[in-house]
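Quick illustration, no need to memorize.
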Amino acid sequence: MIPLEELQKIRKRLGLTQKELAKQAGVSQSLIAKIEAGTLDPTLSRAQRIFTALEELREKEELKAQEVMHKKVVYVHIGDSVNEVIKMMRNKGISQVPVLSREKIVGIVTEKVLLDKIIEEPHKISSLKVGDVMDDTPPIISSTTSVHIISELLRDYPVVIVADKGEIKGIISKSDLLGKIR
């Protein structure tokens, strides 16, 4: 549980008055004021109700995938030419692109994968297909996934795909997330 000394700071960060927090937690405003002033040590059950209310309010305020994602997703197909993919990525200014096979995402092509392949086998690049160079499928999340979870996934993956009920809704890259941070 969060230390009681943090209550006022957290409440203010969420833009709440003592009265609003008290109402959400089902306690009195005077209880919140006394806890914040350090003149009262609440019972465990009251402290839990207050911090549960704060957590619920924080989750409501947090950005979700649907607010951060790019809705227009550019794809390539598993049998496409690597040369064409490189041209397309350069023209569109993108550094990674999901790979489709039978309308399902089966992998991803990134600048890193392409550069590695060019360095390994420069003479073969013109004959390679997307299926020869693609990486594993990036994580697929729902449109209601929180920015906190997305940021954790983006530590290990170049992008995350947003889908609901199997239908692709968008894509989120690290730069998309950085652009939404306030």
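The chain has a mean pLDDT of 88.
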